[in-house]
Fold General stress protein CsbD.
Amino acid sequence: MNWDQIQGKWEQAKGKVKEQWGKLSDDDLTQIEGKREQLAGKIQERYGYTKEQTEEELKAWERDTKW
């Protein structure tokens, strides 16, 4: 699924994001509003990941998430 589709279904995607990255709060997910860069920034902030590590995780999540 590409990011445009994820952004369009953000309300549904929030649950799957929360399953993958449980340290993100509901407020974080509301602020992100489906924006990939903001999601990446919050993941880096909450988990202390590098930008590269965050990108790898996001790409794997996008590829592997079933809708």
The radius of gyration is 11 Å. The CA atoms of residues 9 and 60 lie 18 Å apart.
